[in-house]
C-alpha cells in the first residue's frame, strides 16, 4: 500500500492545536525558532521578495519644496531574497491490538500525535538554531573576555559591545537568546547581583528575565531550553539509550534585531515562511488513515515551511560564554 494522498487521509482537528496553543507548547519545550524567525504565511510554495536595507532606509534626502511647487523624489532599490518551503512530516502507526490493551491507561491516538508532532517541530527547531549559531550567518562575533562562570565576569560590558555592533550596522538590537545553563550563571554573576538592588527594589534577590534584561538594556531575553537525545539507536543493551544534549550551544549568546511585524519589506534577522494552501498548519496538521499492513491506523503530522535568513547584519554572536 503506497503512502496515501491528502484525499484519502482524514484531517483530525480534534488532535491538532491552534497557533496560540502551539506557541504555548513551544515555549514550554524551550523552543526559540519562531522567536528568531517569526512566522509569515506565504501565498506561494516558493517565491522572491525585496527587503529595504539600512543603507536605503537611513539615506538623507532633501525635503524642501521647490519654488515650482514640486517635491524631491527618490526611488528605492532593495535586495532581493527568496524562499522555498518544503513539506516535512512524520507518522506513528497505532496498532489495533495494542490500542485495546492500553485503552484504560492512555489514548493511543493522542500519544501518537504528540510523538509525531514533536519529531516534526523539533526538526524545524534544530534547523533554526543551527542557522542562528553559525557565525557566517551573523554580522559579527566576539569571544567573551571573562566567562560567566567566573567571578569577575562582565555581562553588561559584553552585551554592550554586541548591541553597539548591531546598531552600528543600522539595526536596533531588541532580543537576546541564550541557553538555560548560561542563564543560570548569568543570573548569579556578582555584577548582576550587585545591580539587582537598584533594578528590583521589592526583592533584590529575585533575578527575573525582565529584570536582567533591564540591567543589560535589551528589550527581551529568550531562554533556549530544548534538548535532544544524541545517543545512537542500537540493539546492544549495554550501550547508552539516553544522552541528552541541548539544541542551543550553551557557550553562545545571540544578540540582534527581530521585527515581529508581518511586513516582508522590513529588515529582520529571519523569517519562517509557511505555505498553507495544502492544509499545512504551523503547529503541525494532524491526519489519520487506515493501513492494513500494520492492522491499525496511522497518525501523520506534517507542515510545510522554510526557515530563511533575511538580513545577517541583524544578528551578532557572543562566544566562549561558559
Could you describe the 3D structure shown?
The protein has 9 helices and 15 strands. It has 322 residues and is of the alpha+beta class. A hairpin with a 4-residue loop joins strand 13 and strand 14. Helix 8 packs across helix 9. The relative contact order is 0.25. The mean pLDDT is 85.
Give the fraction of residues assigned to helices. 25-40%
Overall shape? flat
How far apart the termini lie comes to: 52 Å
Query: The biggest beta sheet, please?
Result: 6 strands, mixed
Q: How many H/I helical runs?
A: 9
Proportion of strand residues: 25-35%
Structural classification: alpha+beta
**How many β-strand runs?**
15
State Rg.
24 Å
> What string, H for helix and E for strand, traces the elements in order?
EHHEEHEEHHEHEHHHEEEEEEEE
Mean pLDDT: 85
Q: pLDDT below 50 for ≥5 consecutive residues: which ranges?
A: none
Chain oligomer state: single chain
Amino acid at each position: 500500500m503506497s503512502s496515501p494522498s491528502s484525499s484519502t487521509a482524514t484531517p483530525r482537528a480534534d488532535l491538532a492545536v491552534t497557533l496560540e496553543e502551539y506557541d504555548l507548547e513551544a515555549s514550554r519545550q524551550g523552543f526559540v525558532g519562531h522567536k528568531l524567525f517569526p512566522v509569515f504565511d506565504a501565498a506561494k510554495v516558493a517565491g522572491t521578495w525585496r527587503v529595504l536595507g539600512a543603507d536605503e532606509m537611513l539615506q538623507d534626502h532633501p525635503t524642501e519644496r521647490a519654488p515650482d511647487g514640486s517635491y524631491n523624489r527618490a526611488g528605492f532599490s532593495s535586495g532581493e531574497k527568496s524562499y522555498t518551503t518544503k513539506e516535512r512530516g512524520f507518522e506513528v502507526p497505532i496498532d489495533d491490538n495494542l490500542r485495546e490493551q492500553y485503552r484504560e491507561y492512555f489514548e493511543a491516538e493522542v500519544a501518537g500525535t504528540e510523538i509525531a508532532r514533536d519529531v516534526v517541530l523539533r526538526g524545524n527547531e534544530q534547523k533554526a538554531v543551527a542557522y542562528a549559531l553559525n557565525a557566517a550567518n551573523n554580522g559579527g562575533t566576539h569571544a567573551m573576555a571573562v566567562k560567566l562562570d567566573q567571578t569577575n565576569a562582565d555581562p553588561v560590558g559584553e552585551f554592550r559591545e554586541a548591541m553597539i555592533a548591531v546598531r552600528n550596522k543600522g539595526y536596533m538590537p531588541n532580543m537576546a537568546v541564550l541557553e538555560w545553563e548560561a542563564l543560570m550563571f548569568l543570573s548569579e554573576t556578582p555584577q548582576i547581583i550587585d545591580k539587582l538592588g537598584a533594578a528590583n527594589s521589592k526583592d533584590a534577590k529575585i533575578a527575573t528575565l525582565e529584570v536582567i534584561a533591564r540591567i543589560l538594556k535589551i528589550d527581551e531575553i529568550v531562554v533556549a531550553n530544548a534538548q535532544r537525545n544524541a545517543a545512537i539507536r542500537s540493539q546492544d543493551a549495554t550501550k547508552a539509550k539516553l544522552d541528552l544534549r541541548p539544541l542551543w550551544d550553551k557557550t553562545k549568546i545571540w544578540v540582534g534585531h527581530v521585527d515581529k511585524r508581518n511586513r516582508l519589506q522590513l529588515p529582520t534577522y529571519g523569517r519562517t515562511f509557511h505555505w498553507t494552501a495544502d492544509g499545512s498548519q504551523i503547529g503541525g496538521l494532524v491526519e489519520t488513515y487506515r493501513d492494513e499492513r500494520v492492522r491499525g491506523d496511522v497518525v501523520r503530522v506534517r507542515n510545510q515551511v522554510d526557515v530563511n535568513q533575511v538580513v545577517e547584519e541583524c544578528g551578532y554572536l557572543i562566544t566562549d560564554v561558559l
